[in-house]
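Example record

Each entry pairs one chain with its bound ligand, DLL.
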Amino acid sequence: MSSTSRMSIASRDDGGADAATRIGVDELRGLQLTRLRWSLRYTYDRVEHFRRRCVEAGVHPEDLRTLEDLAKFPLMTKADLRDNYPFGLLAVPRTELQRVHASSGTTGRPTVVAYTRRDLDTWSDLVARSLRVAGARPGELVHVAFGYGLFTGGLGAHYGAERLGCAVVPMSGGQTERQVQLIVDFKPDVLMATPSYALTIAEEFARQGRDARECSLRVGCFGAEPWTEPMRAEIERAFGIDAVDLYGLSELMGPGVACESVETKDGPIVWEDHFYPEIIDPQTGAPLPDGQEGELVLTTLTKEAMPVIRYRTRDRSRLLPPTTGPMRRIARIRARTDDMMIVRGVNVFPSQIEELILKVPGLAPHYLIDLSRDGHLDVMRIEVEMACDADGGDADRARRAEELHHHVRSFIGLGAVIEVCPPGTLERSTGKARRVRDRRQF
Ligand code: DLL
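Structure tokens for the complex follow.
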């Protein structure tokens, strides 16, 4: 892209995106209602699965008269995405797609997300808006240490930063020594990473005998995994920066669904002109009033390729009143309502690990996933039993551990410590099996 066209996109965003965050609450509700009607009608007409679910529930897009009427429509989960893998929920022909990303599903099938040209444009605008409220400015240099590839973090951050009019260092995750070198040499203003990786980078500064507080960074935009106020304080102290919380999920778009303002640091602002938020009781599915904790449910208002209506994020949060502009905030996400773990920024389900264990002959589906921290980095250790009838010699156990390690690395993208134990050694549960021991301190 030429520098002139980048300039023109940046200046368009300066007007457009920020103007949306300055409208009044009534105007916002009106816009949401118009867009919600469009999104329901559009999805109903184009996605057979949604139409069928509406018919089963006895609702029709015409039934939406107020925003509250959305609660009549069926909820959607990751299972709907899995059952329609890979492209069953597309609302446009494949030829209109411009990009496909994927994240972990609950089983071997990944969750697929697709974008049209306009979806990518909206995504860039919203990440640009997020960076702006986080304190970044056009002309600055943004070091992106989110992973590039199928994960939405790297490319989502990348195009958003460019859209704001920034230059990007597309470093991706890993190679921590090199991260430090490039931060020292290139002098970026903004760092985008998972919070745990930001702390690992800070540790690497110290290991090299450098003071991270003396580096050029001014602002950090962190997300993709849960983190806490003490962690924010630690990152801010380590780098001498402002650290803000960036939220998002692939099923909706990727990073940039919500982002905290550097002025207030009081929870990510949901970009409500593109995503309609609700909180439900995770047990009953009933909508809960603002302020009450439950499960965050999101509906896309403008997405073309794969609109999602009432998507259960499984993230526990509360809707908080706006503090800057008309849009509501979500409380920091600390927990989920399902068993998904986030390990080094990668989503992992116990069911995925179980599937991989069963791929290795001689291993039994008796296992425990132990999560701990080495410094600031997550460590995943899988203890798994040999099957009763398998040869239990040392060499044999080592071979099976190696095989499972290989599967976990290639299917999930993580290194894990594997311990293969003799049959009957792991604790048996009398009720629901306990598959995960999480010893990380959040
Ligand atoms: O993690 C998208 C993203 C990339 C967000 C970079 C922010 C920055 P997924 O891999 O689909 O997408 O994982 C989504 O990660 O449902 C939450 O459970 C968790 N998560 C994301 N952001 C935050 C955050 C990306 N700021 C899942 N705080 C979500 C806590 C977060 N959890």
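Residues 361 and 435 are 20 Å apart (CA to CA).
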